[in-house]
Amino acid sequence: MIKVGIIGSTGYAGAEIVRLLLQHRYTEIVWYGSRSYVDKKYYEVFSNMFQIVEDKCLDDNMEELADRVDVIFTATPQGLCASLVNEEILNKVKIIDLSADFRIKDVGIYEKWYNIEHKSPQFIGEAVYGLCEINREQVKKARLVANPGCYPTCTTLSIAPLLKEKVIRPDTIIVDAKSGTSGAGRGAKVNNLFCEVNENIKAYGVATHRHTPEIEEQLSYAAGESVMINFTPHLVPMNRGILVTAYASLAKTVTYDEIKAIYDKYYDKETFVRVLDKDVCPETRWVEGSNYVDVNFKIDERTNRIIMMGAMDNLVKGAAGQAVQNMNIMFGLEEKEGLMQVPMFP
Length: 346
Hints:
The chain has 346 residues and is an alpha/beta fold. The chain is 30% helix and 20% strand. The chain has helices at 12-21, 42-45, 62-66, 80-84, 87-90, 107-114, 132-140, 150-164, 194-197, 212-223, 256-267, 316-330; strands at residues 2-7, 27-33, 57-58, 71-74, 94-97, 128-129, 144-146, 174-179, 202-203, 230-235, 242-249, 273-275, 293-300, 305-312.
């Protein structure tokens, strides 16, 4: 059994890690970390865990935790993991960080966009960006994985194949994305109150959203050159889900079958990326509660552009599910272990 510790187990992503690992055949959660609920029973925080989890919440003592577990998930705000990790800890335990602390390779870019000082930049170089479908081989050997953000996961999986195959012009990419409110975390914020969100949709972080440099970095790797995009996220009144609609100019004349063949080349053997049938647009309701990403595309011959679309659950493939997928790879388990939940509907 893989012994697991979770720092931040009472946030949305942390709670989702708990839900998934309780259905995993080879893991045992021994540390439910939560700075806000120390000594409170986990089921008293989340009543869906009544008679399922009897453990009490513990603090975020990573030093002690590293002596008790095989892997630590840090489902915490930016800055915390970087402030806790050190060489001694990494020599004892594997870490999967769900924050942005180790996703961006340029510490200056990280500090500029997140407006905080990075406390352990010495580990940025070795941290593996845990987008499983792209960096699987590097994840296998990693001791520190930077779990990707939700928007970057959906965006990169939707666009990267066409960049790699030089089908689209990298300097023309526009990304319009929408997220459910759980993407903002469980902390109390006026903008996330029911009356603020219900019956409303709004753009936010326009030209300033922190996932922008992460998306640009990953798309640059795919393109083999520097990529700069327009990225506009929107908040929609639903609990879960990410929908990405991206646009780019075509670099050459292509047919539907040619583009479909490119997506199939990259994803035909991937369990969790589903390339939809012709003219079927991805919808968040068909991936809710699952680790699947649905992608598709539409060629607009009139404008010589292509529309690339993706949908996924921001808390599963966009956070906890991908983290568990990374853990499975790191420990040599079947990648889909604990992750074969059928999407929920309705």
